[in-house]
Structure formats: structure tokens, C-alpha cells
Amino acid sequence: MNTLIVVDMQNGVFATPRFQAQEKIQKINALIAAADRVIFIQHECDGMMEGSQNYALLPDVLTPKEVFYVKKTACDAFSQTSLASLLKELSEQAFTICGCASDYCLDSTIKSGCAAGYRITAVADAHTTSERKWVSAEALINQHNEVWENFDQPGNPILVKPTAQVLTEWQS
Questions:
Q1: Mean confidence (pLDDT) of the chain
Q2: Quick check: 140 and 132 in contact, CB under 8 A?
């Protein structure tokens, strides 16, 4: 089962310009279309309350008929959410992850999930972030791909692969 977790692809999140947003959305949509199971993670905070336009997924993001939704209030999608129980209910110990923001929500979710024993594939070219005060978005994306690829978790390395490779592997 190819389970895809899509993080924070919401109107309110993208109110701040994101690096190569349209290109990233196209890659994420290709992953959504090919996945057996999709879990959307949505961040809720002031100005992005459930049911609001800011909380809603971006209109350009594919939304299959059968998907799962997990609401979070912290960067880490495992922190005080239903994600771990949903994955347990689905008998899922591995997932592929993409979305926004590389340096906050993806990073904390990937590291937390890896520490909890999930086998994780981060899609190297299907996550984004914004320009930061001290570093560019592109540099952050590349840095996080490198960090995840070299994250030291004996027996459970984080895999970092481009969209094309993930899609090819899912087709085999």
C-alpha cells in the first residue's frame, strides 16, 4: 500500500509566497493521483480555523474521493493528533511525505515519525517553504533533503527520493 501524507497545502499557509509553488503542486498532484491512500494534514491556528477559507486545501491540489484528514495545531503532525492512531488503524508502518513547510512541519513530522519507527520516504522535489531572514527557501529545501538523507536512526534510515523515482517504484 502506497500511503502519501500531504502536509499543510492550505490557502492560509500559501498566503506567504512559497518557493516554486506551482511546480511543487504539480509534483504533489502526481503523487496524490498515484498513491493508494492519501492523508491530508491541515494546520489549525488563529486565522486558519477549521471550516475557514484559510484552513481549506489549495484549490489546485487534487482531492480524491477517499482521503483521510488529520488536524494539527503544532508543527509536528504526530503531536497531540490522531495521525499515529490512524496509521495504526490502517496497519501502516511506512509512508511517503510531501508538502509545506520543509523547515518546520515536514522536518518535525519526519523526525518524530522516524523516531517512532515509521519507515519514511521524503519526496525531495515535492516540498517547499518560504524565504527566511537568513537563508533562501531553495537552500533550506536542499539542506533538509541532505539532513533527512543523513539522519542517524540505526535500522530505519529516512529515504529521500525525487517524485519521478517514487512514481516509478509505486508502479512496479
A1: 97
A2: yes
pTM of full prediction above 0.90: yes
Query: What integer pLDDT is reported at residue 172 of this predicted model?
Result: 83
d(CA 25, CA 9): 9
CA–CA distance, 160 with 151 (Å, rounded to integer): 11
Q: Which of 118, 129, 98, 122 is nearest to 32 (CA)?
A: 98
Q: Do 6 and 28 contact (CB within 8 A), yes or no?
A: yes
Backbone angles phi and psi of 126, in degrees to 5: -125, 35
